[in-house]
Design goal:
With 325 residues, the chain is of the alpha/beta class. It is built from twelve helices and eight strands. Helix 9 links the parallel strand 6 and strand 7. Helix 6 runs parallel beside helix 8 and helix 11 crosses helix 12.
Length: 325
């Protein structure tokens, strides 16, 4: 039995080439199987900053705004993520010997939810680009897909779309803003169409059983990544038979990404064992619930928070190897 370990993406260190390499080196030292390029910048700004620089967005105190006319009139920027290129170059030159590289890409639904159409209080999804499906389909989907193809061309062979907003949008009984299940299926299939390698989706927070069934039905997805430490209720939404019937694997988060405390190995072992049973053994790419960017500022120094994140990963790796025998 082969079960790989991974990480969702972010770390609580200042963004710099030196810190990017530090993370890569540390991930190799602890033996993680499928590391991401280290996200030391906010996962939203990595993908919205190019739109801001191209004049498609306005940034005010960390918030993003746009005019629909601008979206269609201006040319979309070419994809570029320096930290992803740096990691790919190190691996290509043999400095680090990873077999799998994970590419976390912020998805179009989540990007749309962070772009407002008017200035005002945050939190009203109706005031964001999510309310304009034409722009999401015609502009943001091709934009995000260009990053997925770009990262694949660099050598990333596990491409993940990160869509935390889907946990909010898709409830048990309805989907917000008039979207249909078919809309979501079509968007995700279009994103991964023509992109080589393994395809995964990461959704933070609570997930409904409806969302699980919906994502399990998407043809071009291979791996479904959810939280099980801070959201143990998610286990009730998992259908092991559906995983088997659809040929998919569950990538469980088994350690907290919010609490700056290292979990006991027995706790991690217990969560992993429960998820393994419910998923019928179909698990892979075990990680913490989410990235560790949220630990920044939680302790007196970022280095302390970073070291706690690494120790969480060490213990995750230990319990996965124990289970895999």
């Amino acid at each position: 039995m082969s079960i790989r370990t991974s990480h969702v993406g972010s770390f609580p260190l200042e963004h710099s080439p030196e810190n990017v390499e530090r993370v890569i080196s540390d991930l190799e030292a602890i033996g993680i199987d499928a590391p991401p390029y280290p996200q030391l910048r906010d996962f939203i700004s990595i993908y919205l900053r190019p739109l801001l620089d191209a004049g498609l967005l306005r940034g005010i105190r960390g918030n993003y705004y746009t005019d629909l006319k601008l979206i269609y009139e201006l040319r979309l920027p070419e994809p570029k993520i320096p930290e992803a290129e740096l990691m790919a170059e190190y691996v290509r030159k043999g400095k680090y010997g990873f077999r799998w590289l994970r590419a976390p890409v912020t998805g179009p639904f989540t990007l749309a939810s962070r772009i407002s159409l008017r200035e005002g209080p945050a939190g009203d999804l109706k005031a964001t680009l999510l309310s304009s499906r034409d722009v999401l389909f015609d502009v943001l989907v091709p934009y995000v897909k260009s990053f997925m193809k770009y990262l694949s061309s660099l050598g990333y062979n596990i491409v993940f779309v990160d869509e935390p907003i889907l946990g909010v949008m898709v409830g048990k009984r309805r989907i917000l803003l008039g979207y249909s299940e078919e809309d979501i299926v079509n968007v995700i299939n279009e994103l991964f169409s023509g992109v080589p390698g393994e395809h995964g989706i990461h959704v933070c927070g609570r997930i409904s059983s409806r969302l699980f069934r919906l994502l399990a039905s998407i043809k071009l997805l291979n791996i479904l990544n959810f939280e099980f430490h801070d959201n143990p209720q998610n286990l009730g939404s998992v259908d092991g038979r559906l995983l088997a019937d659809s040929g998919k694997f569950l990538a469980p988060g088994i350690a907290s990404s919010r609490k700056p405390v290292v979990e006991d190995v027995s706790e991690l072992r217990g969560i992993l064992s429960k998820v393994y049973r419910v998923a019928g053994g179909r698990i892979d790419l075990v990680s913490a619930d989410c990235g560790y960017g949220g630990l920044k500022g939680a302790l007196s120094t970022d280095i302390e928070a970073y070291e706690i994140g690494l120790e969480k990963l060490r213990r995750i790796i230990a319990v996965v190897r124990e289970l895999a025998g």
